[in-house]
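Recall the central idea of this unit: under ordinary conditions, the amino acid sequence of a chain determines the structure it adopts. In this exercise we apply that idea directly, starting from the sequence alone.
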Amino acid sequence: MTSFDQTAFSVPTTPHSVEAEQSLLGALLIDPAALDRVRDTIAEHDLYRADHRTIWRQIVSMSDASLPIDVVTVAERLESLGTLDQCGGLVYLATMAQNVPSAANARRYAELVAKHGHLRALQAAAQEILDAVAAPGIRTAAEIASDAERILSGFAADRGAGEPVTAADAMAQVLRDADDGAGRAGLMTGIDDLDFLTGGLEPGQLVIPAARPAVGKTAVALAIARHVARNEGRVAFFSLEMTRRELAARLLAAESGIPARVLRSGPNPGEWAALADAATKRGNSSLILDDRAAASVAYIRARCRRLKREGGLSLVVIDYLQLMAPENPRANRNEQVGSLSRGLKALAKELQVPVIALAQLNRTSENRADKRPMLSDLRDSGEVEQDADAVLLLSRATEAGDVIECDLAKHRQGPTGSFFLDFDGARMRFSKRYGAPTPAAPQRPANSRPRGFQE
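Accordingly, the structure predicted from this sequence is:
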């Protein structure tokens, strides 16, 4: 979050906020040990008066240096820096120490100081937005709106951050979750073998399904999105390659079982009822489609923040990574894609939802005998592999493309392994495949079996 300089704005204060600052500083002067109880509650910029910020800064500095702290020693420190007179002198320090009701209430004083500081910072943020609006012609309205959402969301996220906990407390929470079932499963994808290997997708994870073109990665992403929207909650699907009409046609085919080509040639009377029923199925209103071309991380972040704020958000899907707009167009391609993957990982952690970002593989796998992709085939940047919590490599197991091998090649949270799915491309549907695939292209051994995964 941006650290706002509150002194740069004409923001009002109240006698109560000044009194809280005086009581806090007085408590620290008579009981320096109280500093440990309040340092996680406020920051220096939460204090309104400049002299109070100077006194706070020196008390903290002296504490960090293990120096004795009281009215006299702090006054000496300020005098050595030439700031004692600006801070009211020895008399003002002594008055604050004498007038504080009790050092035992230092935490409460700090909370009051923080409250007023937060309100002033929020007012400063609002003023920053107003200043941008008052400068027409420099930036577009969309850019200003995006920055405004970033500022306010960043402010809320920073102020709402959880306090540090001991490892023992964190482990106890994991055990409590496991006992009541909360720790047993993440977000189910609807692909049984994938859910078995991963235990479901976890909040904050970046998952990369990757494949060569026309293998079926968009169909896999849509299948997962449909399942989550129907059973878990809202899904934001950002399509940088296909239009919303193309996605809707695929969704109708998957929901109705009527091939997508029928929508182009014209359904017969008997098919209209199935299509109409598919269009109104539960979950379709929870799947949000956004087909903005070359969307940036900032754009996706702003949209997702709004969706989460307005109605909750369970999953974000991006199709696909290499089509996103880079933050720095002048950087080389590896740096651009690496920056995008880092941004999406940060987005997943900020929103506390899984982010699925599809990715293209380079042509290297096509030159190998068995055609199976590897992690090193991820196109444009090795940082994608580094940033991802899980990488799912998709490839055709048959020449016809009706069997897809899914290789969970990277999984930070658990096992890796591969499995097969039957793929009905006309209807955009996947189903679990038992046993080995049909003998495939000559380059794939006839006895090919799932690697590292037991039924």
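Residues 1-11, 438-455 have pLDDT under 50 and may be disordered.
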